[in-house]
Specification:
This protein has 249 residues and is α+β, with helices and mostly antiparallel strands. 38% of the residues lie in helices and 22% in strands.
């Protein structure tokens, strides 16, 4: 009887093993059958591509949001800075000064007259003759203008432009003289001076008193006066001061 039960048990176990084996091989056969279809690989490729694209869109969207946030932050900061700048006191804002124009080297142009004028080679013969300076037997074209008071009294000599004093000296013929070099390279020259008030290397502003009118040997017949001369540069040609001042004012 025991032998019969053992035989039945062995048959049942063998049948269970066979059934289990058959169940495990079916999915494998089904997967191979699925992969054997022509549309299987394209479908899998498209699905993978769709997943990758989805991740890329999500990442780009996050990045664009961060960029937009950063841009908005920068705009807000710029707006705040502009507002702060606007709210600053008027004296704290930068002021662009207008360029200076050359002026007469005297406080009141109406108080002086032109003695010897500037020698203009294009002027009439009469004017050119009046603009010649005679020293002994030599006639020399006048390179500036002479200003004097009708009563022959002295007067303050002013800097016609702001600049740096580059020459302070006394010449045997032209007397005490001062030269000022300006930011545009132009040089103004003041001769026949007395009581010079500036030193070489000093910075002066337009309208500062630099000396008083005096006398010199070259133009001693003119008495107390100022010889005013303008040069384009330290070694450049002389310019007509009257034309410059009339044009600039």
């Amino acid at each position: 009887m025991n032998e019969q039960k053992k035989g039945i048990q062995v048959k049942e176990e063998a049948s269970l093993v066979k059934e289990t084996a058959s169940n495990t091989t079916v999915p494998s056969k089904g997967w191979r059958a699925l992969m054997s279809k022509k549309w299987a690989f394209p479908a899998i490729y498209m699905a993978a591509a769709a997943i990758i694209l989805t991740f890329m869109w999500v990442y780009q969207d996050m990045g664009s949001n961060k960029t937009a946030d950063k841009a908005n932050t920068e705009i807000a900061k710029a707006g705040k800075d502009a507002k702060d700048q606007t709210n600053q006191p008027a004296d704290a804002l930068a002021v662009v000064a207008a360029p200076e124009v050359i002026k007469w080297p005297v406080a009141d142009r109406n108080e002086v007259v032109v003695g010897i004028p500037y020698y203009d080679s294009k002027a009439s013969s009469e004017i050119k003759q009046a603009a010649m300076v005679q020293y002994g037997d030599t006639l020399t074209p006048h390179t500036g203008i002479d200003l004097a008071k009708p009563d022959h009294q002295s007067f303050d000599v002013l800097a016609s432009l702001s600049g740096k004093v580059t020459v302070v000296e006394k010449n045997p013929l032209t007397g005490s003289q001062v030269e000022i070099t300006h930011s545009n390279g132009m040089v103004t020259i003041y001769q026949s001076l007395s009581d010079v008030k500036v030193t070489q290397g000093a910075e002066v502003k337009q309208g500062d008193v630099i000396a008083k009118a005096g006398v010199n040997e070259l133009e001693k017949e003119d008495g107390v006066h100022l010889h005013f001369e303008v040069r384009q540069s330290a070694s450049g040609p002389v310019l007509d001061p009257t034309a410059l001042i009339t044009t600039k004012e």
